[in-house]
Amino acid sequence: MNKHGKKYRKVKEQFDKESLLLRDALGKIKDLSFVKFDESVDVAVNLGIDPSKGDQVVRGSVALPHGTGKQVKILVFATGPKVDEAKAAGADYVGFDDLVKKISDGWVDFDYAVATPDLMPKLGVLAKILGPKGLLPNKKLGTVTDDVAEIVSELKKGKAFFKNDKYGLIHFSIGKVSFDGDKLHENFKEFFKVLTASKPATSKGQFVRKVTLSSTMGVGIPVDVADLA
Length: 229
Prior knowledge:
229 residues; alpha/beta; Ribulose 1,5 Bisphosphate Carboxylase/Oxygenase
């Protein structure tokens, strides 16, 4: 049984599976978009790592030059003067006890969570809820910090995170179909630069094995990895 609609199948018929140069692939994404909403432009990267080994986990953050085009909701666990700092920086939800209770009751309507270091020991009660969703504040990602204003500002401007999944894949959004080609190209290049710099020392051989671009509802378009290098 075919799971894709007629428009998807029609678009797929227009595209052969040869790898394209990056700019050509980005142009093809825009040309082949067939839905009425502004789709995200997503990247899937197959990495040459063993995801079962802890020392080969690939993770990092990227401040995209042109943002992701997505309006993100940021929650900050803070008390005292940090509350006002977070609100002034644009945080959508700020507090502690009230937020802990709401999340314990099942509410997770936010994209990122930030916390000051002194409150992290008290957030253990939320680990089972936020951890699997990737929403638990993390010092390595910069979301556990006393400088809440800076991280909130960076996240609002388009800073985003990546981490490989259990199959050794990285999934990341570089913007919207409505972005012009240059903006998508610059966002991709910044992401790719940070990703390649994140290669674990224990990972041997070719690090980036395959790169595929797609829009939210569109077909996957393979990118020439040699051209990226």
